[in-house]
Amino acid sequence: MIYVFLAKGFEEIEALAVVDFLRRAEIEVCTVGVGGKIVAGSHNIPVFADLDESEVKLDDNLSAVVLPGGMPGTLNLEANKTVKDAVNFCVENGKTLCAICAAPSVLGHMGLLKGVKACCFPGFEGELEGADVSDEYVCVDNNIITGKGMGCALLFAHAIAEKFCGKKEADRILNSLQCAI
Q1: The domain that contains 146 carries what CATH number?
Q2: What is the pairing mode between strands 144-147 and 138-141?
Q3: What is the pLDDT of residues 126-135, one digit of tens each?
Q4: Where on the phi/psi map is residue 26: left (φ > 0), alpha (ψ -120 to 50), or beta?
Q5: Which of 36, 97, 101, 105 could hold 121 in an S-S bridge, CB 3.0 to 4.6 Å?
Q6: Which structural domain, as residue segments, surrounds residue 81?
């Protein structure tokens, strides 16, 4: 199970492109509404989440957490106990952490990027405390996957899918989407 956390003000494309891509790969993924099942994104698009944060289960079925960026979504993710508990569970159990755009700052503030190659939306580099900050669109460093922003959401999703179903299947899906990248 992969949880994609949606907090008020999340970047819609960064969240939903990942969910769509992973579901095409037949990877079990659930959106989790922070503060309720209906969450408005940064462009006021309401999204009905699969789960409310109270339904989150931190157990062996959880394989990854995805934090989409957007403002104030990133700040709302960082302020949420359930999100932090899920991130800590992943760290403690060798699970995968994925964050894109401004959201890698959440991992940076938690001290989880020390010595890790990571990327983020330009201007947030100083928030990636201790990271080896990269200009790449997507960085994969062991169990941490980061993405630069909305424009590379499909590449970010591809990297996550590759981790869980292999490069061949992730490439097949990317090609089926007519992605020019």
Answers
A1: 3.40.50.880
A2: antiparallel
A3: 999 999 999 9
A4: left
A5: 101
A6: 2-176
